[in-house]
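input
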Amino acid sequence: FDHLYQERAKFVLAGLAVILGTIAIGLVFSRTITLPMRELINRAARIRSGDREAFQPLKHYGTREFAQLSHSFLGMAEQLARRSD
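output
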């Protein structure tokens, strides 16, 4: 235990590094996955309620896959709106 007590500064630094790394990963995940998904869900709800302004592309896609999903979804919604008209 004496040795661990002497090395406490290294343990504190390691703990801080883990905490900061976790925060960084959380922020990246939020920016690239969570925010675009919430925006796409919001757009779907707006389109369902008849809002024609919701057919605009997202401001931030996060990943290439979300960009493809968004373009496909909005294209499908526009096509359905045209058919319904």
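quick obs: The chain has a mean pLDDT of 89.
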